[in-house]
Records
---
Amino acid sequence: MSEAQDLLFTALADPTRRAIFERLCRRSEQTVGALTAEAGVSQPAVSKHLGVLKRAGLVSDRPQGRQTHYSARLEALSPLVDWTQQMSGFWESRFDDLEDLLKRMDQ
Amino acid sequence: MSEAQDLLFTALADPTRRAIFERLCRRSEQTVGALTAEAGVSQPAVSKHLGVLKRAGLVSDRPQGRQTHYSARLEALSPLVDWTQQMSGFWESRFDDLEDLLKRMDQ
DNA sequence: CATATTCATAACCGAAGAGTTATTGAATTA
DNA sequence: TAATTCAATAACTCTTCGGTTATGAATATG
């Protein structure tokens, strides 16, 4: 439902993009050039990925002269953690035995 | 990198599919028909989504007569939790001040 | 000032993916 | 046995998306 949540899941779905984000989690600020050097795709491709990550809130950019420094915004992952905990919560709060019993009686 | 991890992220990226998984986390076993009734898409579409979720390990199926019961496998989410913790770990273990200092000295 | 570098954007291409309808096979039910 | 229901698969369409090359705008450098 949530638009922001959707952007987050979508942004993390692509392996190349996830790898870029992982690199930014390991080392702090990195330029587009540095990221391109290790991404295995062209510079425009990297720029596009960074755009998607930015719209999802996963990275922030700091233009400096002719280069742009990107860094990871770890806080952006919290909706992911929240969602996981919510799913676990649903799971655990089910009265499985009772439900299953009623279901079998219903058949 | 990890193939299983990739399947997981990909499976959760689509909103319709994520909604199906969420429903299965709330209520236990549900048939394809029950899921279709609330999915907002056709039965074949739901079956395809369930196939993707199953390949990602997120659901298991139990054929019974002419209907198939699906249920969520919550354990399948653990790689997601692991990944998130790993990212946080990378982040926290960085010597940010030192790195930034060296980086500025390098320029 | 002229040249080179860095990044973003535009324009395009091919593959993948999410949806549809039609169909089939298997299992109930009348 | 005949008719019906349930779910999976096939075949197809249309859009999205990840990649490319080409270009442009801004900044740095000789």
---
Amino acid sequence: MSSDQPKKEISAIKGTHDILPEEARLWQLAEARAREIFELYGYRELRAPVIEPTELFEKGTGASSDIVTKEMYTFVDKGGRSVTLRPEYTPSVVRAIIEHRLDLQSQPLRYYYMGPMFRYDRPQKGRYRQFHQIDIEVFGEKDPAVDAEIVEMAHRLLARLGVEDVLTLVNSVGCKKCRPAYGQELRQAALAARDKLCPDCQRKAEVNPLRIFDCKNEVCRQVASGFPLIIDFLCAECRDHFHKFREYLDLYGIEYRVEPTLVRGLDYYTKTAFEIVAEHLGAQNAICGGGRYDDMVREFGGPDLCGIGFAMGLERLLSVARIQVPKDSFVYFAYLGDQAKKESLRLARVLRSEGIECLVEFRDRGMKAHFSRANKLGADWVLIIGEDELKKGKYQLKDMVNSRQFEGSALELAGIIKGKKILEIG
RNA sequence: GUGAGUGUAGCUCAAGGGUUAGAGCACCGGACUGUGGAUCCGGUGGUUGGGGGUUCGAAUCCCCUCACUCACCCCA
């Protein structure tokens, strides 16, 4: 680089990250496990665009939510439309269902997806501006058994990824019939105790009193502990739903704790709300969050179709996952001279056709340097081609793990590598 | 958006106003021209995050800015 180049190098946008090959292996593995498990339960992938009309989230996520009011990547495109990089996935699925009349298919509809989401937050551990979620949704099933099913499915995935020390919190946030009455009672209690609360909670008392329960201030917690709880206000239907949900959780052997103050941050939840938190994750410890949203599809002008789902944060998941990436096995070509290099290139094509990973480097090296390099790269096999091998048309294959060496034709060696045939030489 | 802390080689860290900013690891090469991991020797690599100021002199002190970390807030 010449000295008159600009000094500032271009770096990734704040809150976004490159996932380098070594780490990408972990992502691939986690994503593959998630797919396997979801498909075992009959879920199928539904891919929606990263970018959506802004109003989709204003209506879906909620115009008063923090996500919509201050965290969206929103801009006007060249056609003058306001568009937004999705901050969450559920509204997109709802849009797709209505747009493609998926509700006419036999229900329930089970979907999963994984991909990037965008929120203009202040980055910190476990919170990034571009982050990734694994998302599942079920539509058209009001039986609380499905609520328990997705929790159980989440647990299975966590177990598969070696995530330990998790705590599952469940609650019911009621429905249109019973929540308003509770909301009023709570607001009254909050306003009555207003001057004892921290400035932040004084504001919440007006805007969203449920949030006071989340305050970490000791005084606020004390005060809030005397507030009424939603669970005492649930209508018969919601109470029954919650009861059965818990019965099914017991049936599945899922350990959980009823957290009467658990409230999901998105406006649309009804009845079941749950969260799975992990220890050793710091302040952003929610690894999975979800719940039921029975009114959302209808509110979008679609059919009366209930829904439930959850999202898992992949970054958070991976930071507590204990997964072993299997080591790749490949053949390194150690050649001497230009003729041997060309023969290596030719041979590598043959072996690749046999499904064997091959690495031919183009730089001229001595045999020792080749081996040193092969070792550094972690090659399981080194295929040696020099003058002797060119003459014979047979090659030396060294097993780098057991330090054994074999001789044979390309296909014979391929057989050895694939473990089908052993031709050992003295 | 608010508060606090931290930025020195690719990584982990020294030097705390005074020669030319060092070490380990990593990378490249040699000892060793057809057989790796070890050892020894050498080499590449820095406008000390960036900009401005104070000073005879700044990695070091001050201001701004950027990034990261932690917390608030929010949430996955």
